[in-house]
Amino acid sequence: MNKTTTYQPAPQRYEQMPYAYCGKSGLQLPRISLGLWHNFGSVDDFGVATSMVKYAFDHGITHFDLANNYGPEPGSAETNFGRILKENFAGYRDELIVSSKAGHEMWPGPYGDGSSRKNLMASVNQSLRRTGLEYFDIFYSHRYDGVTPVEETVGALVDIVRQGKALYVGISKYPPHLARLAYQLLAEAGVPCLISQYRYSLFTREVEADILPLTAEFGSGFIAFSPLAQGLLTDKYLQGIPEHSRAARPTGFLQASQVTPDKVEAARRLNNIALRRGQTLAEMALAWVLKDDRVTSVIVGTSSVAQLADNLKALEHPTFTPEELREIDAVL
After folding, report:
1. I want to staple 113 with a disulfide (CB 3.0 to 4.6 A). Which of 105, 222, 238, 312 is the partner?
2. What is the DSSP letter of 201?
3. Domain of residue 72, residue span
4. Has residue 42 been placed in a domain?
5. CATH number of the domain that 183 lies in?
6. CA–CA separation, 323 vs 66, rounded Å?
7. Does 267 fall in a domain?
């Protein structure tokens, strides 16, 4: 990429974001990263998507998280992000951390899904073509598929790095005993697991029992996705399910059945704590995830610049008193 863009990033962008080293590596990630799981596909407003990426970078978000199947249509988030880069970020590639993943269903037939070597090697090549990039900074095995030996998946990840298609590799959503095996195999191959990506929020805390200690043991960074529980940890559902909300749709990852009375009541009580702290519920929920030193970064998914701006305010009040933590635990 050469510098022909009319977009000029904010000169003070790095002063607006704290960064953390990713595990025992020398790579730093912004404490808040932008995810392109939703709102960047072919069915979404490209202008809004572009504005969010620009705003993110202007405020120190250097890490953008993709996967080959993000859309809809699958693959379109990578295509759109590649277009945003080409049209606005020429000359800034070395200031960006771009990650992608493969492992969930992407194309029909026996080779478009899962964690096999065939799928991972084909997927990384397709993803590079869609984004127009020469390499990814991080490439993940998106999941353990229940069939493929971890040794096979790890071998593909190692070769992806050795072939120059990614600088680092990571794993996502692996069961703890298989995560340990992946960490061991990657370390033995000389390509340590840079980062591990799991769901983590006030409402989803399973990683505290084993995954977070495991990442610390092996020197892997940790990045949380769905920190707002698909919107449950915002003020959107404090009075139930509003019309046109994500939970009101017949399809999607947040269903009306998940917006239970006990979740709504818990969100209301958490919201009261957040208001006393001078924060929105979303800001407090993000700050709560980031309070753990083992958490390198948190991935936010936003539908507007205003929503992204609100999420970034979580960094203004990152600490909790012991009393606040006890009160939050009592709610949960």
Report:
1. 105
2. B
3. 13-231+284-314
4. yes
5. 3.20.20.100
6. 37
7. no
